[in-house]
Design a protein that fits this description.
Elements lengths: L3 H18 L2 H6 L1 E8 L6 E2 H10 L5 E14 L2 E13 L7 E14 L2 E9 L2 E2 L4
Parallel strand pairs: 1-6
Antiparallel strand pairs: 1-2, 3-4, 4-5, 5-6, 5-7
Length: about 130
């Protein structure tokens, strides 16, 4: 049986793979129903809003991300992790890609034996062309 830390690292890897593949359903399954995303300059986004934005755009942009997990801490059925994240979002309409990088702080909750993302604060900022 994998350790909690291994299971959380696997959740992050699965999230990145599913995002790259455009697999919204898998990403949604990795969240609690009350998940909230905090992004600078925007209102908090709930899981429902996240799902609605993805459902409206099934041919959405290509998302490619690299996450370096800096720390994972587990306390019972709660855990947090912080990462360095670099993401490139490439629209399918030929618009130039958007590149962002920075740190994230995520809170996870164990539900029915599985870790799920409950809160996520992302401090990503635009970066220059690579």
């Amino acid at each position: 049986m994998p350790s909690d830390t291994d299971a959380i690292r696997d959740l992050v890897a699965t999230w990145l793979r599913a995002s790259k593949a455009g697999d919204l359903q898998t990403v949604l399954e990795l969240m609690t129903d009350d998940a909230v995303f905090l992004v600078p300059g925007r209102d908090p986004m709930t899981k429902a809003r996240f799902a609605a934005s993805g459902a409206r755009d099934p041919g959405g942009p290509e998302i490619d991300a690299v996450s370096e997990i800096e720390e994972v801490q587990v306390a019972g059925d709660w855990a947090y992790l912080w990462t360095k994240l670099r993401i490139v979002i490439t629209p399918r309409d030929g618009t130039p890609p958007s590149r962002r990088a920075g740190h994230t702080l995520s809170i996870l909750r164990r539900e029915n034996g599985r870790w799920r993302l409950a809160r996520d604060a992302n401090l990503l900022a635009p970066i220059a062309e690579a």
